[in-house]
Every structure is written in C-alpha cells, then in structure tokens.
Design goal:
The complex is a heterodimer of chains A (293) and B (456).
Chain A lengths: L3 E2 L14 E3 L5 E5 L2 E20 L4 E8 L8 E6 L5 E6 L8 E8 L4 E32 L4 E5 L5 E6 L4 E11 L9 E8 L5 E2 L5 E5 L13 E10 L5 E8 L9 E7 L7 E3 L2 E3 L2 E3 L1 E6 L2
Antiparallel strand pairs in A: 1-9, 2-4, 3-4, 4-9, 5-8, 5-9, 6-7, 6-9, 9-22, 10-18, 11-17, 11-19, 12-16, 12-18, 12-22, 13-14, 13-15, 13-17, 18-21, 19-20
Chain B lengths: L4 H13 L13 E4 L7 H14 L3 E6 L1 H4 L18 H16 L3 E6 L19 H13 L6 E4 L15 H19 L5 E6 L5 H9 L2 H4 L2 E4 L4 H4 L2 H13 L4 E4 L12 H18 L4 E4 L16 E2 L8 E2 L1 H12 L7 E2 L4 E5 L19 E6 L4 E7 L9 E7 L3 E7 L7 E3 L2 E4 L2 E9 L4 E7 L3
Parallel strand pairs in B: 1-8, 2-3, 3-4, 4-5, 5-6, 6-7
Antiparallel strand pairs in B: 9-10, 11-13, 12-15, 13-14, 14-20, 15-19, 16-17, 16-20, 18-19
The chains are: A mainly beta (293), B alpha/beta (456).
Chain lengths: 293, 456
C-alpha cells in the first residue's frame, strides 16, 4: 500500500467573537475563552459555539481538560455554518474517571466557515471543561491497516518512525485496546524522539511525552481496538525523521499488556519498531496530526 | 405483471428449491455458514441444513479431512472421534452434506485439511511429508462430487509458518499445497473452482499478490481471507485489497473463509446481532462471492448466556434455538437477496438530520452524528431498499434522520431487523416535491426501509 497522506496548507483558525452559549442559558457558563461548564439537570442539549474557518481536507484538533463524566456525555462537533449539519463529531466512548486531557480530530470535510460546538447533546450531565484549544492540522496517515497486532508492556516497547510533514506535531492517533479483561496495571506512556542522521534514535531528551490513563484505553471486553487520539505537542522540522514510542509507565506482566493494531508495510518513509528493532515489513496503524507555522 | 415482495421471495425460493439434483441456480450473494455438523444420519443432516437454508444462505461451507476418510490402518482417531465420522460413515456424511445442500438450493463448498493438523504430516499414518498420497484422495473426492461443489479452499492460514519447517512464504505454499492439490482437484473435476487458503492477518495483501505473480491464476479462481468483524467497520483495507487483486487478476473471486466472530464475551444479544448483520451486509455490498459465518461457536452474551454463535441446531428431540444474531443475518440475507437483480442508486435518496438546536442568531445547528453507512438499492421487483447503520457497534451512536426520495417511490415501511417478514409503515409527506420519510432512527442495528414503485 502506498503512502496515504492528506495535506493542507495555510491552516488557520479564527475565533469570531468568542464562544456563544447554546441551549438554556442557565445551563451554560462560559468562564473564559478556554473554560466552559455545562449543567443540565434533565436531558438537554447545552454547550458553547465558536465560529472557525477551516481548510479543505484537514482536521480540526480539539483539546480540553475534562472533569469526570459518563461515557457519551462530552460532545465536540464541527458543523457547516450554512446548513448546520455536523461534519465531524466526537463523543467520549468511555467514562472519564479522573480529570483527563481529551483530544479529538474532527474532519473538516470541504473546509470553509464552520462552527465548533463543545458541550452535551441530549444528556443529563455536568461537564467541566478547561484549557479548551482548537488547532487546524493536517493528517499524515502512516497506515490504516488493522490486520496485525503489536504488544506494549511485559518489557515490550512498540514504536513507529515517520518523517514530519509539518512544523509542529500536535497529536497521534492509534488503534488500541487492553489485551485482557479487568487486569489493571500501569498506564501507557507515549514519547516522541528525534532520529539522528545516522539512523539512531536520539534518546537524550524526548521532544514530547504524554501519559494516558489505562481507563482511557478501550477495554478488552468489547474486542474492539478503537481509534485513540493522544496529545503529543512538540516542535518538529519538516522532512526530518522522528520516532513515536509506546511503553508502559511501569513494569507489568503479559496479561496487562496493551494491543496496538497495524499491518504490512504501507509507509516507505518509516517502519514499525519492536523493542528498538526496526520491523521494515510492517507499520503501526497510525495517523500523525501536524500543524504548519 | 405486479408481484408483492413476499410473492417475489416465494418465486425465488421455488426457483431455487425446484431444481433438485440439477445445477443449483446462482444467486449472487455471499451468504454462507461454516458448517461443523457433518453426520452420517441423513435425517439429522437434513434438519441442520434446512436451518441454514432458512437463514437465507446461498452457500454452505464445511471442512474435510483425508485422515477421517481413510485411516490407513491407524487408530489415532479413537482419541477424539466416534466411528460415525470415520471411513465409510464419513464419506456418507459428506454425501449428505453435498446432496442435501444442493437439494435445498445451496451451493456446498469444501475446505481441504492441511499438514498443520498433524505436526507437518498430511496424515498421521503418512510419514512422507509430501502431498503425493493426499493428492490421490483429493482427486477421488473431486471425482465423487464432480460438478457439485461451488469451490474448494486449499488449507487454512498457510501464510504463517508452520510445522515441518514450513516457512509461510508464498512460494512454499504454492509448491507444498496449492499446485499439487489444485492439480489433483482438476484431475477429478476439470471445471472446479479453487481458492487459496483463507489468509491469517487478512487480507495479507502482499502475500496474495505474490501468489498471483507466481502464477496463481493458472491453478485457481479466487482468493480467501479470514476476517474479523472490526475490519467491516472501516473496510478501507478490504477495498484496497480487492482493487489490487483485480488489477492483476480481473476475474478473481473473493471468498471470506470464516468471516465474523462477533466479539465473544459480555456483549448484549442485540449488539452481537448488529455486528453480524453489518458484517454480512458489508460483504454483500463490497461484492464478495462467499462469506461463511460461524454457525455455532462460543459466544457468551450478557443477556441470555448463549454459549453458541448464531444458533443451536435442531435435532430429533430439540427444535433448536436461534439467537438475535441469526435473525438479523436472516433479515440481511432475505432482503439483499441477489446482487444480479439489484442496482445501487445512492443518489435516489438524501439524508436530512432531524434535530435542530435553537440558536440565538437563528442559524441552524444539528448534533446528529454524521456519516452512517448509507446505501440505496433498487431491487429487481420494483422496490427501493435503503440501508442505514452506524458502523462502530461496540461504541454505539444514535441519530435521527429524515430521508427524502423521489416521488416515484411510496409507501415506506421499516423491515424489522429481527423479522424479515414484518413491515412497519413509516410516516411520510411531500416536501419540496420529494417524498420525505420522517424521523428514522439510526443506530448500530441496521435500519432497512422498503419503498414501492408507484408505476408498478
């Protein structure tokens, strides 16, 4: 399979007059430009809306720190400004059990003037969102194959090299689930490293690092390795090679491993790694979200 | 001449069942099951296969083993098998499988055993490690059922390394299994259709393309994959595979050997049913030729604690029991009945979200989840069939939509997901010269709407 890359240029997001409330005004508190609280004592739709200008064929990356809430309570939606139809949408598939950073890449479709909704749709809930940020990105798809698995944990470390197509890495998206049911165990650590011109991974300092709570990773029970978008902000140089690494934050046994999906080689500029060794015949199912200057 | 949909189905059924021992008419659809019920008891075989026929299958797929047909004097079988499935009784069981399937209008297909079952040997009593003796039995099998088998699948998952130093390469599979066994089949049945093994880590595109480069089309007619249900949600990989295989081999057939396996723990009955229905529709829609779902396998649901897949088959003393997944599969198979009589007409209908959130500035805003799988087919009997579902059944979404269609179509009705015979009329009105069906709920369980052609 060849390189699947969607590229967009001149990405820019412009707030137009800041957030405006949606639904019962008593249910929505817009604290500041980055913080919104929703309280719907009965099932209702309430949230905040922001006008954004998005490019064609890219994605809008929406990030927020969210207090605990039930599965499906949190909704991000990117809507066409004229028709009002939702073009890209995210709802938290799993409960948020402790304050967490939630990231979603919403498709921008044909681009143009759109509206970003953050809030709750037809839910009885209390949502506390802070550090809300949105950023237009391009999506560099390393592979969308899901026929092979790679384990993380039990002294196994998985990774993938790639060549930056933008100036700043914002997030990565993988297909992942916990390997077994109800095992507990350490959280998932995701780090970004540069690759030196001689091909070695420069481990002196990670360029970016994020820890994902185990509770945010889809459970084994549903047998569904699901797309998980992970914030990984780091400045990168276009055309340079980088390495994204997935490990457990602490030692764990085999039953507590994570399962990442991937497939045969689909990306000529990089390869999957297992415990630091390149596996040129395969790639992880991975999308890199990058922003331009 | 006008026919109601039930008359049409009845005619199709009679056309299929009336042929008996002659050629079974080809219904272009992939519906099949993996059948583990081989038995020398003819009445029981008939009961089991009638179940598969009732499901709406066009084919039925079973596994056949040389070492069950010919013991070569060994007693290895006594550990796991009863005499009912050994030697002449086994031959009789395959006879029943082939002949009764065909009587019921289904095309039987066979998967040939591998060297993997006995640590590198094709037969526990044959130490040669070569397929020579095995090929002789395969020729006998193909001769016995000449003209009666839809296709043969040679082995299973030989794209992985295996016992006896087998390295899993395309070349090794060609030499050790495909070429000798395909040649043996054609010796007994020159017109037989042949497929490679169902690949592990399917679609294993590179391995399959390498086989084609090694001359596969000279020996075979198609390729096979062992899929998992999650691959049906976003079939980009499957579509890419089909495109690349067809680019090298335009006539290739596509056999999904053992599709599915809904998640097998803790899911609810209706979720399992939705996954099975979506998988079968997806493979119909993508153009697969065969897609046997496991008829009975382990699957413990939250609701009914079933420890089987689609059903427990009937016996002389038990009427059998049929899961929601069986019923949902049945609805797909009886509704999307024959590709050769259907035409994709996606532009014939348009989706409009139901919800409108009130905004201060009066601008519209909808939070209905976008992008359900949306397909429109015109059937051969004057019906429009609309299929809608959100593909990620594990993390369900619900959306409410209006559907606008040309006024050529009328009397919209919902085909019940778990009862393909039942119709529930839907409310509609004329809006902007189109017929608008109001408030259609879409979730992980497919929503199927039928409309009639006013001109008929």
């Amino acid at each position: 399979m060849g390189l699947l890359t969607t590229t967009c240029f001149a990405l820019a997001v412009q707030g137009a007059g800041g957030w405006t409330p949606v639904g019962d005004p008593r249910a929505v508190t817009i604290v500041d430009t980055h913080s919104v609280t929703i309280a719907t004592p009965e099932k209702a739709t309430a949230g905040a809306l922001l006008a954004v200008s998005t490019p064609r064929a890219g994605a809008l990356l929406v990030t927020a720190d969210v207090e605990p809430c039930a599965a499906g309570d949190l909704a991000f939606s990117l809507n066409d400004a004229d028709s009002g139809v939702s073009i890209g949408q995210f709802r938290n598939p799993l409960p948020i059990t402790a304050k967490s950073t939630v990231v979603a890449a919403l498709s921008t479709g044909g681009g143009g003037l759109m509206r970003l909704f953050v809030g709750a749709h037809d839910r009885k809930t209390r949502l506390v969102m802070s550090s809300i940020r949105q950023c237009a990105v391009n999506a560099q798809r390393v592979s969308s194959c899901t026929s092979l698995g790679a384990l993380v944990g039990d002294s196994r470390v998985a990774g993938q090299s790639f060549v930056a197509a933008g100036d700043r890495c914002e997030a990565v998206e993988i297909r992942i689930r916990q390997l077994n049911e109800n095992t507990g165990g350490p959280d998932l650590c995701v780090r970004l490293f540069a690759i030196r011109p001689d091909g070695a991974i420069d481990r002196s300092t990670p360029l970016g690092m994020t820890v994902i709570r185990r509770s945010q990773v889809p459970p084994a029970e549903m047998d569904a390795a699901r797309a998980l978008t992970i914030p990984l902000p780091a400045r990168v140089a276009r055309g340079q090679k980088y390495f994204v690494e997935f490990s457990s934050v602490a030692p764990c046994d085999a039953s507590q491993a994570y399962l990442l999906l991937g497939g045969p080689d689909a990306y000529p500029q990089g390869e999957r790694f297992e415990n630091g060794n390149a596996k040129p015949d395969s790639d992880l199912c991975l999308t890199i979200y990058e922003a331009h200057k | 001449m006008k026919h109601t949909s039930s008359q049409f189905l009845l005619m199709m059924f009679l056309a299929v069942t009336a042929t008996g021992a002659g050629d079974v008419p080809r219904r272009e659809a992939p519906y099949s099951v993996v059948y583990y019920g081989l038995t020398s008891d003819e009445a029981q075989a008939r009961r089991q296969l009638q179940t598969v026929r009732d499901l709406g299958c066009t084919g039925v797929h079973t596994l056949v083993y040389w070492w069950q047909a010919e013991t070569l004097g060994g007693d290895y079988w006594k550990k796991d098998y009863s005499p009912d499935l050994i030697g002449e009784n086994y031959d009789r069981a395959i006879d029943h499988f082939v002949n009764i399937s065909r009587e019921l209008g289904m095309r039987p297909s066979l998967r040939l055993g591998s060297f993997r079952e006995f640590d590198g040997k094709f037969h526990p009593m044959d130490d040669s490690g070569t397929p020579d003796q095995y090929a002789k039995w395969v020729t006998k099998l193909a001769t016995r059922y000449r003209g009666k088998i839809d296709h043969y699948v040679i082995g299973d998952e030989e794209n992985h390394d295996g016992p006896g130093g087998f390295d899993g390469s395309a070349n090794a599979y060609m030499q050790k299994m495909l070429v000798p066994l395909a040649t043996a089949i054609r010796k007994g049945d020159p017109a037989a259709r042949i497929s490679i093994c169902g690949t592990s880590s399917a679609p294993a595109t590179r391995w399959v393309l390498e086989l084609i480069d090694l001359g596969l089309p000279e020996y075979a007619d198609g390729v096979a994959c062992n899929f998992w249900h999650h691959q049906m949600q976003e079939p980009v990989e499957i579509e890419d595979f089909m495109k690349r295989v067809r680019a090298k081999w335009p006539a290739a057939k596509f056999y999904a050997n053992g599709v599915g396996y809904a998640p097998n723990r803790n899911l609810h009955d209706l979720t399992q049913a939705a996954i099975v229905a979506q998988s079968m529709f997806r493979l119909f829609d993508l153009g697969w030729d065969s897609a046997p779902y496991y008829l009975y396998t382990f699957c413990t649901t939250v609701d009914t604690r079933q420890n089987y897949g689609l059903c427990s088959v009937p016996s002389a003393t038990d009427a059998g029991s049929f899961s929601d997944a069986w019923k949902a599969y049945q609805t797909i198979a009886h509704t999307f009945y024959d590709r050769s009589t259907m035409k994709r007409l996606d532009n014939a209908a348009r989706l409009v979200p139901m919800d409108r959130v009130q905004l201060v500035d009066g601008a519209p805003l909808s939070l209905t989840p976008p992008a359900p799988l949306f397909r429109v087919y015109e059937s051969g009997d004057g019906r429009l069939l609309i299929y809608l579902a959100y593909p990620d059944a594990a993390f369900p979404q619900t959306g409410r939509w209006r559907i606008r269609v040309d006024r050529r179509w009328h009397e919209p009705a919902l085909i019940e997901a778990l009862d393909y015979r039942r119709r529930t009329p839907l409310t509609s009105k004329v809006v902007e010269s189109m017929l608008e069906i109001e408030d259609v709920t879409v979730c992980e369980m497919p929503t199927i709407i039928e409309l009639k052609d006013r001109a008929r």
